[in-house]
Amino acid sequence: MPAIAPDHIPERLYPVIEALCATGVDVARTIARGPLGQSLAEGVGENTGGDQQKALDVMADEAFEKALGPAGVKFYASEEQEGVLTLGDGAFALAIDPLDGSSNIDVNVSIGTIFSIFEAEDGAEESFLRPASEQIAAGYIIYGPQTGMAVSFGDGTLMFVMDPETRVFELAEARMAIPAAAKEYSINAGYRRHWPDWVKSFVEECEAGKEGPRGKDYSFRWVASLVAETHRILTRGGTFLYTGDARPAYAEGRLRMVYEVAPMAMLIEQAGGMATDGKRPILSLTAEKLHGKQPFVFGCRDEVERVAELHG
Ligand code: FDP
126 a known binding residue? Predict the structure, then answer.
């Protein structure tokens, strides 16, 4: 049985989406067994970006790479691989963070797989180093209390949930809609002393609550798992910030443009939210390097616009 029915998915892309879901089902099963299987959070090396690779990062990467070639993916760009791999002679270029939020693997908190799809161009890297607005699909699979998938094909953001009985992804919401105003904001506050002034100002306004310029109380949330954070914001709103700061190597933040920021920006914008680098829309930007970092602010429109005002 296919892992997702073809309804709601453009015909050309269906084999790719089905392969992502089928592999996601296997990854979800491995994650659910946790310490009963092999040690998933064991350090096994370092990737090109200098992040520590855990056993599950590598297992997930191998599984997606194997499944996507026969499904029509020509070029495969992964966080876990230095260069672009040519998998076959398909029509698509797919960028992937096979396992996002890996610091949460061994604490049983939601983690995920993020993907971005372009039409394949002649050149391997050129297929990814192009305007984020040229993505033809983007999404994530979330491995949490529910395994689900958010995906956009450029006409809204759809949400699927995997039925644990059948292991098939079923449509749960045909058009996600992010509210204009938020009650929650998310940022790693441990780095406050390194933030630029406009980030400090935004957070101080939220903290000032009802008595401050925003005139309402906010709650603070930080999961340290981009997929979990995006899922919460798609579901009930909020604001997320991971901008550049003054730490060495963090001038552009931490998140990668090609396989983290661009796909999340497409999902958020297609659900009526807003995604910027603090000021400019992410979808107006072009990745310069395969593993390049990108400052990222996204969520409810009113809040992201306020961040842009403070940025100046
Ligand atoms: P991780 O490195 O654990 O895969 O993708 C990077 C990411 O997780 C995001 O999922 C998460 O939002 C962020 O890093 C957490 O960064 P900090 O540890 O700096 O808070």
Answer: no
